[in-house]
Amino acid sequence: MKKLDLKKTKLSEVNAALQNLNKKSIDKDFTVMNPEGCHALCVGLVNKINVTINGHVGYYCAGMNQNANIIIKGNVSTGVAENMMSGTVHVKGNASQSAGATAHGGLLIIDGNASSRCGISMKGVNIVVKGSVGHMSAFMAQSGTLLVCGDAGDALGDSLYETEIYVKGKVKSLGVDCIEKPMKSKHLKKVSVLLKESKISKFKPEQFKRYGSERKLYNFNVDNVSEY
Amino acid sequence: MCGIVGLYLKTKKYEKSLGTFLSGMLDSMENRGPDSAGFAIYTKEEKSKYKYSICLNKLTDAEFKKRLSKDLKKVKVKKFSDHVVLETTDKPKKVLKFLKEKLGEVSLVGYGKCINIFKQTGRPSDIVKNFSLSSFSGSHGIGHTRMATESAITTEGSHPYSTAEDECLVHNGSLSNHNNIRRVLVKKGEIFSSENDTEVAAGYISSQISSGQDLESTLKESLKNLDGFYTFIAGTKKGFALLRDEIACKPAVIAETKDYVAIASEFQAMAHLPGVNQANIFEPEPGIVYSWGN
Q: Between the N and C ends of chain A, which has fewer C-beta atoms within 10 Å?
């Protein structure tokens, strides 16, 4: 276990140390101390390593992650795991807006709440939020899965493409072109896998509702010709 | 961009450190607003005494003192950089008239029984030192670091804006209908000293409060009447309140312990506060008024 203390080492040096690992390096486990809300911590990690961050972090933490397993023991600000490609990012506290924005792959777990625009334009990532999500979550989301154990705010899934959304609690309102869809056995299976991966045992897949795109915005509708 | 901060003390434990804490908060928000900074710090109320925070502009403090009228009662002048705090038992109506007629070259930044309010162009880390913010004790304070967007980098264009006794406002964002609201308020008799959108929001809030509304319902109503992006912190004699617009693009984070409530644009601003890692830290929801002390 290698310790990196942001009180003693510059942010750019901590990031460089995690990004440019010698392939033969025996260090696979790292702890980052005293982040004190700094931005862009642990961005662009490409190796299969385990990083634990002790404390609250600023913007774009774990952005562009590939392969790394990153645990944040605290809250995160805007854009955690944005554009993640693979690996796991686990936030033990709350997340601010745009968590998992545009992320292509991997798993993002948020133990607390995520605020507005969670999973905006997501492109294949799986996001599990144990609390609730704010307004306009999964806005223009393209693929992947957003699973919410709490409630969802206004305009969930507005202008949605093919991301699947599962919510256990109340949905304040659905966005344009987002509708509730039936839960079939393959969806129950999908939720069950995600719950298992996120180590959630107190909820059953049957408790979730599924939301997806009505696909009405996909093609030009001739009835709207007068609008142009 | 812009950075906003606020600190409200729930207990007396940190009264003496208020200035030091607020100073650190502004310092760490310099990246969000390097053009100018300002703050309002609420100190103990002294019976029948008013404080007038005045920017001297080019006038020296000696000249200012010389020209103070003998009619003003029990006058005390304390200098802070290019500002002074004038203490007197004379009521605002008289002092404001006097300043306007006899000391036209200075500008009144704010006044009240508790408020001390200062602002200046330059780097926030220098400004907090210029005004020796860390020497202040008090009950609560709010501050702002500005990245100028819609009006020039001047002292008049800096926050906080105070448009009534012991009231002030800091704002991260921009308003799109401020010219219309300014016109309506000017007709009602409000006076504005800048072209800044936030001053209009401050004037709007004071105007509603002076017509008998409380701060909370005024802020709630501003969701309908103020169009644009904002996170506001409105300071009053007793405390402060926070509001984010319903789109909530402008950030805010709150940390609450048994001793204090801290608000900032980013967590970095509060990372130095005692016990903050154990605080209840959350993001205020859009369109909801959060209020302490009022």
A: C
Q: What is the CATH number of the domain that holds B99?
A: 3.30.70
Q: Which residues of chain B have a CB within 8 Å of the CB of A75? A: 253, 267, 281
Q: What is the pLDDT of residues B88-106, one digit of tens each?
A: 999 999 999 999 999 999 9
All structural domains of chain A: 2-227 (2.160.20.60)
* Contact check, Cβ <8 Å, B267/A78: no
Task: Tell me how many domains chain B contains.
Answer: 2
Judgement on whether residues B142 and B59 belong to the same structural domain of the protein? no
Q: Are strands B76-80 and B83-88 parallel, antiparallel or unpaired?
A: antiparallel
> Best interface-test mutation with A: which of B263, B265, B268, B280 has the largest number of A CBs within 10 A?
B268
Tell me what pLDDT residue A21 has: 87
Same domain, B190 and B128: yes
Cβ neighbors of B101 (< 8 A, separation 6 or more) are: none
The residue-averaged pLDDT of B45-53 equals: 93
Of B82, B113, B144, the last residue of a domain is: B113
Closest by CA position to A25, among listed A59, A41, A48: A48
The pLDDT of residue B149 is: 83
Rounded CA gap, B165 and B124, in Å?
A: 25
Best probe of the A interface among B244, B246, B283, B288, by most A CBs < 10 A, is B283
Determine contact: A98 vs chain B, CB below 8 A: no
Domain that holds residue B279: 3-38+118-292
CB count within 10 Å of CB B180 equals 13
Phi, psi at A189, each rounded to 5°: -65, -45
CA–CA separation, B242 and B176 (whole Å): 20
Considering the domain architecture, whether residues B18 and B132 belong to the same structural domain is answered as yes
pLDDT digits (tens, 9 = 90+) for B215-227: 999 999 999 999 9
Task: Decide: A110 and A129 in contact? Cβ < 8 Å.
Answer: yes
Q: Which residue has the tokens 């401020």?
A: B178
Strand A123-129 and strand A143-148: the pairing is parallel
A80 min Cα distance to partner chain B (Å):
14
Place of tokens 């009264």: B15
Where does residue A42 fall: left (phi above 0), alpha (psi -120 to 50 degrees), or beta otherwise? left
Residue B2 bears catalytic tag: yes
Pair B169, B247 in one domain: yes
